[in-house]
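Shift notes (night). Ran Methyltransferase type 11 domain-containing protein while the centrifuge was going.
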Amino acid sequence: MAKHFVKQAKQYADTRPSYPPQLFQFIASKTPSHHLAWDVGTGSGQAAKSIAAIYKNVIATDASEKQLEFAAKLPNVTYQHTPSTMSMTELEQKVAPQGTIDLVTIAQALHWFDHPTFYKQVKWVLKKPHGVIAAWCYNVPRLSYEVDKVFDKFYKNDSGPYWDPARKLVDDNYRNIDFPFQPVDGVDHTGPFEFVSEVVMDLEHYLGYIRSWSAYQTAKEKGVELLGEELVGKFKVAWGENEPKVAKFPLYLRIGRVGDA
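Came back to this:
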């Protein structure tokens, strides 16, 4: 995962959407206590800073040192650079002892993980039986009919060949991602539950978001510029006057509790 975002780490931090307060309120309502949360694949800390407003302490980890450089520094958030795969000893040293974490969150990253190994570690660190894991992804933004028409053709035809196969889990809104946990109190399934993240963007911000994609970087490494002059021109025409627009990112949450596993 880490290699996909090294070269555009600052762009990722500057252009990726934050997440709606309703998402964190829903998640927090499902954990009996709010002492310690682990934000895995934190990147530049988009989720960690919101979690830190609710939970007393947050351990935020990522395999990319470069992305962590751009994370917001907060007094109750500890950022840790970790290897892509940790041993159980490393997990205890870098994250937390067994059965001490109230909440594990994974924002826009679960599709990159080795699920069997990761879930074993999640079940080890979470408090039993009510410790919660919450993983979410967001899909492509919706702005206007004109902009979306240009985007959809570009996303399917031009960027498609450069996405890692793991991206298909996001396109599927995490419906078919492996998620071996029990429903949390008050619901009868583990999701996906839908939310919306709204971001005000001008055209340059929008194009910067596209440039932050792993697919954009992969194409660039192969000598392909996905946002060539002709395409940028089409986006400019579709955008119209360069006034900010509201981009709506549909967001999909899988949430479950560890039980007695």
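The longest helix spans residues 145-159. The chain is about 35% helix and 20% strand.
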